[in-house]
Design brief:
Length: 485
Amino acid sequence: MKKETHMQGNTGRPFGILDSLSYAAGDLGCNMSFALKSTMAIFWTQYMGLEVWYSLLLIVVQVWDAINDPLIGSIIDADRRQYRRHKFLTYMLFGSVGLTVAGALCFLPVPWAPLWAQVLIFIGGYVIWDAFYTVVNVPYGSLLSLISEDTADRASLSAWRSVGSAVGNMIPMAILPFLIYDRNDRLVGERVFLAALIMGVIGFLAFQFTIRTTELRAEIDLPLHEKAPRLSFFTAFRNFWHNRPAMGATVAAMGMLLGMKGGELAVTVLFQSYFRNAKISGVIQVFSMLPVIAFTPLARRLVVRYGKKELSTFGAICSLFASFLLLILPIPPNAIGMATYVGCQLINSLGVGLYSTVSWAMMGDAIDYNEWKTGEREEGMVFSLHSFFRKLAQGVGPSLVLLIMYAIGYVGKNGGNQSLQVASGMRYLVAALYFFSALMQLLGLAVIYNLNKRQLAEMHDALAANRERNTKNRDRAIDHKEDMP
């Protein structure tokens, strides 16, 4: 009697450029929604007038993040229902529908509303957006470990995901400042709301491309009638805590995002008040993302030759050097100062680009590491915990930076007309943020992450042997059960 197995989504198509483009489109879809978070602080402090309340509310909504990510990740892991293709793709389809308009809910232009109503609008909009974003993002990130087991393929997927992320960020960065600011460098809230709706539709179309073209090749077979494992969040969290690759990649990602997302508001105010040109800030930030795209065609060969840990650690050293220069070099508020700033940022981005192109592949390896050490893959839980800490950095980072800005003397209602003292403070605050960011990346990648090129090969060999042995044992058990009277 033939045993039943839970095989989904594999038609035998060899790995190729379609897989890379398909995976890149998924992160483009995510960032069509997520990129607007960089505008959220300006919208709620300068347009809506929440001022210091905004930084406190950001910390409050992180409580929802603490529940949201691991909860949805554990639900996905425990789901053993049979879907037409795969449960990850099904969850992505459901989440992408809600995410189409959820992002716009965070930008309802009602500055005339009383404070209590603004607080409810912000919390409600953020909670709805974050829920749909997690339903899409957690299964999307988990797909990487199932599309291919090959290290080079995963490096290619990770690099192309970085391209999707970069393009998803570059489009709003380059175009939005020219659309949402008036001639006095003040934000026009109604334009932000409309832009969020349009970007939601673009993101939805990108997700549909990913869902329809994704091919899974490394799926672990499960008996169709096998019961779902008993849900144990605390066990999964303990496994994550002892998963050095996952922890190292998470610390590095938190460091990167503290610099990128935590510094977004400070960078905007820097260009508003120090360089006196808010609209060009997006174009300059786009230049800083070019290294990510430049490294993508080389990522596969570089990983095969040097290894993910080795490559990303070198990138963190480059970022640390560039941010140190940004901190100590004179940067006057003129064209020369702006050129110096851009030069340092390009070197910093060179390092971030090296790490970014392999960062998601490193998490794919961390999922394998969890299986190697514990016998449980827990893709959804491992990735959702990683996603939680990333979002914690993306949420708490801007909140803490905003509090520092208020301590320096920043006044939200003044928009781009900050005092010279505040404008100068932004110049050093941005440099210090990037330096701290690079330091965290180096700690996570060089010290905590423990899978170098040789150790990664050993782990994959051991996993292959374990899976073959488990398959044989399962087949023998099934055959023995069938032979019993």
